[in-house]
UniProtKB/TrEMBL annotation:
Source species, domain of life: Bacteria
InterPro entries, per the entry: Plipid/glycerol_acylTrfase (IPR002123)
GO molecular function, one term: 1-acylglycerol-3-phosphate O-acyltransferase activity
Keywords: Acyltransferase, Membrane, Transferase, Transmembrane, Transmembrane helix
Gene Ontology BP, a term: phosphatidic acid biosynthetic process
Keyword Transmembrane helix included in the entry's annotation: yes
Residues covered by the Phospholipid/glycerol acyltransferase domain: 72-186
Pathway: Lipid metabolism
Bilayer-crossing regions: 12-31
Protein name: 1-acyl-sn-glycerol-3-phosphate acyltransferase
Amino acid sequence: MIILRSILFNTLFYTNLVLQMIVLSPFYFLAPRKTAFIVPKNWARSNHWLMEKIVGTTFTIEGLENIPQDGYILAPKHQSFWDTYALLPWLNDPVYILKRELMWIPIFGWYVAKQRMIPVNRGARGKAMVAVMERTKKEVASGRQLIIYPEGTRRPAGAEPAYKYGIARIYRDLDVPVVPVAMHPGLFWPRRKFLRFPGHFKVRILPPIEAGLDPDVFYETLIARLEKASDELLVETVRDNPHVPLPPTAVQRLKELQIEGKSA
């Protein structure tokens, strides 16, 4: 049953993406930029509905009151494709720094350009990166939310921390608060797998780390707070969803926390 539901969900997920991008293009490209952002928000909501109705996966968000009013950096744990879009309905005007190659994808790249996302050549150095940071400063100063995954790439639940120091440099240069976000969607939508598992999990938005700290102090604070919250949520999620198969990293972490879990 899980295999059939996963196939159906994946099919409808990508069909939903393509259809909405095509059908809603006239409104999206003719509307003002911030008004047009309704389209990605509603796409994210429709994906949540598909996930709930087809797979049986739901979630709740804790800590929305921790989101600042002005520009800030959102720093979520990154485990799944789910967390690349899931929070869009609750964000006012997010901006991503993304691979410039994504801008070359027909229609999708045009959508991204409309929202003034910031392309970067990952191999760039010097003046190119200075230009990216200047553009980022301008967007965040206008009140936008910069979304950065501190570990850079998707990692399985329970994996050892692998934070990139780049977020500390960006924190220093932008001089805005950082809002850590702990969650474990990777237990229900695993990376590099087509299976989707039913259950319920929490997204926990932590209090902001204030601007102006020494970058090294900020870096250690971010890791400590986010890993503590991630451990707590891992224990809660496994306790509330004993049927969900766990990756070896989660099993090992639960053993370190002296909690038993069912392996995948």
